[in-house]
Amino acid sequence: MRKSLTMIAMAVVLFTAAFMLFGCEGPQGPGGKDGKDGTNTGLLALEGFAPNARCGDCHTPGQDSLYFVAGRKYQWAQSRHALGGNSERNGASCAGCHTTEGFIQRMNGQTVTNQYQPSPPGCFACHSPHARAEFSLRKATAVTIGSNIAGVADALFDYGAGNVCVQCHQTRTMSPKMPGAPGPTDTVTITNERWYSHYGVQGQVLMGEGGFKFPGYTYRGNSNHSVNAAIKTKGCPTCHMVEQAYSPNLGTGKAGGHTMNIRYYTEEGALDTVYHLVSCNATGCHGANFFNETSYRNAIRPIEDSLHVLETLLTAKNWLTSSGTVRAGGTYGPLKITPAVKAGALYNFLLIEHDLSKGIHNTKYAQDLINSSIQALRTP
Ligand code: HEC
Ligand code: HEC
Ligand code: HEC
Ligand code: HEC
Ligand code: HEC
């Protein structure tokens, strides 16, 4: 039933389009009466076509040199957006980020509903190609990222084209919040294994927000990435979407562009990953301090190593399970941490771990949060 409706809808669209292209025009008749309001078919997100949409601009894979839709579709198909598998997080509270349908609702200011035929974040999430007949970003305004530390204000993320990313790569609420200025005898009681700001914390870390700062520790501030002029204008795509030039083993279409990957495998079954480092070496960025595989790995090692030290300390305290999850809720019952300030170490660990960039987004900030957390746990 649904399928045949879709077929009819497509036939109507194609017929109308053909008519727009080939139909001959007579004198215009008088306008008709307003029609009855349609009934809600459940297709809340249906946006229709712009009157000037020329199907062939985008649907001619044989000769598309305007938008390279086929190429970009191929890149996207290899991204975690397409392959991650978490678009089955399709309930109303998850679909706003995990599905294209829910995201469109959220961006339109509609109530996000359960999505029973969800598709992962795809072309129509970040763009609105049919309704606009081009590929501008659906929304590129600054995004407020909620703070999960009591008393710390929300942050306003404003990094140009990266703003669309942070519509999803942002925090979710966490309960209880990390206390902002706990007293020496205060306790935090954690009753849920998901005591963290969800997974997309990259926007916060890039800005240098969201971490718990231990009183008395001197934090050095942010790395250049937070304020770099190119990154301020283009945000996350500066590094994640720079296209790969063709070259053997550079893996055109495996990283950069709409794959949004930086780390990738050259071929299926390859043992080691390689990195797409073209953006690091751009003028205005590292330029002469050329990054290659070796120097890149050296750059991420201190964060990887110290994060591992922090994890070991947290596991030894029994705050993390051996599989790295918060030891609270379910069969574990509540996790009580006294003095509450030390919970900041657990909170910071999960922030930097979920950022997934091994500090690259904001190395100084990440390293200081890790070091201060280690120091706090080692202080009796
Ligand atoms: C500005 C670019 C653009 C224009 C113009 C455009 N489309 Fe699309 N369309 C897309 C993209 C991108 C997709 C999703 C990727 C894909 O399926 O190729 C898509 C998907 C579709 C699909 C769904 C295909 C599927 O398998 O789900 C149909 C049907 C379609 N377009 C029809 C049309 C028709 C008819 C027109 C002209 C009236 C048109 N499009 C104009 C970009 C465009
Ligand atoms: C509609 C919401 C949404 C938008 C917009 C979005 N993402 Fe994502 N992104 C996700 C989700 C959800 C995942 C995880 C997918 C999964 O596991 O199914 C993800 C995964 C990723 C990953 C892979 C992470 C990993 O663990 O391997 C990268 C890299 C990424 N996104 C970068 C970006 C960039 C860069 C932008 C902006 C150009 C962006 N995303 C915009 C929702 C979004
Ligand atoms: C504000 C947007 C947003 C909402 C709402 C959201 N998520 Fe996510 N979620 C993300 C993003 C972005 C990622 C991918 C982060 C990455 O890999 O960097 C993600 C990743 C995940 C992952 C993968 C974690 C991993 O280890 O790779 C799971 C599982 C998940 N979300 C579950 C849920 C569930 C369940 C809900 C609803 C209760 C939900 N999410 C609501 C944005 C969101
Ligand atoms: C997760 C978000 C996201 C998804 C999904 C996505 N795009 Fe994009 N797209 C972007 C961003 C960000 C840019 C770069 C904008 C910039 O640099 O200013 C872009 C740029 C483009 C451009 C170049 C814009 C221009 O005017 O030349 C095209 C074409 C395009 N995307 C097509 C697609 C197609 C086709 C798909 C689906 C296969 C897709 N995009 C999916 C975020 C996304
Ligand atoms: C300065 C360049 C740069 C900028 C800007 C940047 N990233 Fe990254 N990102 C990286 C690097 C490098 C990695 C680490 C890749 C690795 O070593 O696995 C990474 C990792 C990630 C990952 C994990 C990917 C994976 O495969 O595990 C996600 C998700 C991500 N970034 C999202 C974002 C988002 C969202 C933004 C904007 C808020 C952003 N990034 C801005 C360079 C950047």
Element pattern in H and E: HHHHHHHHEEHEHHHEEHEHH
> Which residues sit in consecutive blocks of at least 5 with pLDDT less than 50?
1-25, 37-42
Helix content: 25-40%
What's the number of extended β-strand segments?
A: 6
Strand proportion:
under 5%
The major pleated sheet works out as: 2 strands, antiparallel
* Rounded Rg: 24 Å
Query: Span between N and C termini?
Result: 67 Å
Average pLDDT figure: 88
User: Rough shape?
Assistant: globular
Which structural category do the helix and sheet elements fall into?
mainly alpha
Outline the structure in words.
The protein is mainly alpha-helical and 380 residues long. Among the domains are: 90 residues, no CATH class; 137 residues, no CATH class. Helices cover 34% and strands 5% of the residues. The protein is built from 15 helices and six strands. The strands form three sheets. The chain has a two-stranded antiparallel sheet. Strand 4 and strand 5 form a beta hairpin. The longest helix is centred in the C-terminal third of the chain and has 24 residues. The protein is globular and about 70 Å long. The site of one heme C has 23 residues, from helix 9, helix 10 and helix 12.
Could you list some keywords that capture this structure?
380 residues; mainly alpha; two-stranded antiparallel ribbon; two-stranded antiparallel sheet; 15 helices; 6 strands; 34% helix; binds heme C
